[in-house]
Amino acid sequence: MTGLPRVLLFALLLVGADIAAAAAPPVAAVKPGHAAIASAHRLATEAGLEVLDKGGNAFDAAIAVAATLAVVEPQSSGIGGGFFMLIHRAADGREAMIDAREVAPAAVDAKAYADADGRPNRDAATNGPTSAGIPGEPAGLAWVAAHYGKLPLKASLAPAIRIATNGFKPDARFLGRLQERREVIARYPASAALLLAADRQVPKPGWVFRQPDLARTLERLAAQGADGFYRGETARALVDSVRAAGGNWTLDDLAGYRVVEREPIRFDYRGWRIVTAPPPSSGGVALAEIFNILRGYDLAAMAPAQRYHAIIEAMRRAFRDHNEYLGDPDFVKMPLDMLLSPHYADGLRASILPDKATPSAMLPAALAHEPGTDTTHFSIVDRDGNMVACTSTVNLPFGSAFVAGGTGVILNDEMDDFALVPDAPNAFGLRGNQANAPAPGKRMLSSMSPTFVFGKDRIGVLGTPGGSTIITQVFEGILAFMDGKPAATITAQPRYHHQYLPDLVYVEPHAFDDATTKALQDMGYTFKQRDGWGFMNVVTWDLGTGKLDAASDPRGVSGLGKVK
To answer: How far apart are CA 102 and CA 502, in angstroms?
Structure first.
C-alpha cells in the first residue's frame, strides 16, 4: 500500500482507489482493494496504516491501533485493561469475538468493597489497586497476532513503542480527564510521577508526554508474547506494586489469564444480518431483543413520535432483561434461547400500549445502572475485506488511577463493574444481582458492543464507548446505516437513550424536534439532557462500487477534516 493516496479525517483513514462494481452476497466475495480505519486518535489511525503498509492485514492493524491508543488515550483504554474484538476473516468468512476482558483475582472478597455498616466502599471499588481486575489486553493482542495476523507481534507494536518513547502532546480531552482524576492520581507516587507536573497539578497544554517504562513493557510483550507481560519481569513488578499498595494480586493470577474466543450473537432484521458481541457483553443480547421487538412495526411508515415511542419501549424492555439475567457465560447459566427468541419478543411487544409510555415500575423488577461515557472503539476494513470492530476500556477515566511502579501500566478499575454489594449502586448507579457477582477468575459484565451489519449492497463496521449508552448508540447507528446514511452522518447524529431505570429518556440537544418532544411528553415520557456521549467510529463498505467510507465522531478532539 506504500505510495497510495491517503486521506485522513481525524481518526478516519481511506487509502487507494475504488474497484469495479460487482454483485456481492452478505459476506462479500469481492475485495475493496483499499483500506479504512476509524479510531479515536489520529496517531492510532496512522499506526494502523503504517502496519498495513508493512504488509499486515486488518488484524495486525488492530494490534497497532489498540496498542497506540493505550499510549495516547490512556484515559479510555490501555494494556492495563481489556477489550472485546469482533473479527471477520475474508478468506473463509470466519467470525469470532476475541474476549480479552479483565477477570477478578483469586483472592477477590466482596466484603472488601463494603464498609462496616454494609454500605459500598466506593473508594475501594473505583480507585487504586483493589479496584483492578487482571488485565486482558496484552494477552488479547498476542492472541490476535498468533492466530489471525500476518506480521510478528513486534512489527505491530512498533508504532506504539516509538510513540511511548519519543512522546506526544496530549489533547484537551486528555488534559480534561486528567483534571477530573488529579486528586486520586496524586495519591500514588508512580502515578503522580508519570501523569502530573512537579507541583502535582495537571501539566499545561503543549506538554510532551513520554512513557519510557511503558515502552519497555511493550518491548517485553513484543519480544516474548503474552509471557512478556504475564510472567517474568513485568509480572513481578505488577504484583509487587499492587500488593505494596494494598491489592491482592498474585503471580498465579497473571500466569493463569486466558483469552477466550466466543461465537458472536447473530440475528436478522428485515433483510440485514447483524453480528455482534455475546456475553459477557450485554450488548448483543440487548440489541437482538430491541430489533426483535421492532420487527413487528413498520418504522418507516410511522409518524416520528410513534416511531420513537416504539423504539424507547423496546429499549426499556431489553434493558430490564439485561439487568436481570446476564453475566459471564463461564459462570452463569443464562436463558439466551428465550431472550433471543422472536416469540419472546412478540410477547414483549404485546405489552406496549399504542399511545402511552409504560412506567418502568409496572414491569417486573430488575436492577439498573446509570450511563457512563468512557472507553474507546475502532473499526477497520482492509484491502482484502478482513474486518475488525474492537471496543476496549479501563472503565473510569485513567482507570484506577494507579500506575504499577516500573511498568508504566495504568491499571483498570473494572472490579466496579461487578455487583460487589447486593442492591447497591456502582460508579454508574449499577445495582446488580447474583449473575454479575464477583468470583475468582470471573469476567465482569460489560456493555461493549462491537458490531458488523451485512446487507445485500453494504456492510457496516461500528461501535462506540459510552457505558450503558453504548448499546443504544450502536442501535441508533445500525438504524442509520440501514437507512443508507454515510459514515459521517451516522457518527454525528443526535442520540437518545432509555435503560429501564432510571425511568428517563436521556437526550442530546436536537435529538427530537419540538413537536415530537411534546407528543412524547404527552405519552408520559420524562426527558433529561446529557452532554457526555461516546465517540463512535464507523467504516462502511459499498459492495457494488467497492468504495469504503469511514468517520470518527465529531464529539471527539479537534482535527476533523484534516487532509494528509
So the answer is: 28
Name the active-site residue from 217, 375, 391, 393: 375
pLDDT in the model for residue 427? 45
Q: Which residues on neighbouring strands pair with residue 168, listed in sequence order? A: 209
**Per-residue pLDDT reduced to its tens digit, 512-538:** 999 999 999 999 999 999 877 889 999
Q: Is the pTM of this model over 0.85?
A: yes
User: Cell numbers of 380, please?
Assistant: 477497520
Say whether 496 sits in a helix, a strand or coil. strand
Amino acid at 141: L
Residue range 128-159, pLDDT digits in tens: 999 999 999 999 999 999 999 999 999 999 99
Determine the 3-state secondary structure of 35 from DSSP.
strand
Separation of alpha carbons 161 and 332, rounded Å: 39
Give the DSSP per-residue string, 187-256: TSHHHHHHHS-TTSSPPPTT--B--HHHHHHHHHHHHHTTHHHHSHHHHHHHHHHHHHTT----HHHHHT
Residue 384, burial from CB neighbour count under 10 angstroms (0-12, 13-18, 19+): middle
- In the chain, where the domains are located: 38-261+389-427
In the annotation, is 375 catalytic? yes
For 121, 231, 412, the CA distances from 130, given in Å and listed in that order, are 11, 21, 10
pLDDT bucket at 366, cuts 50 / 70 / 90: low
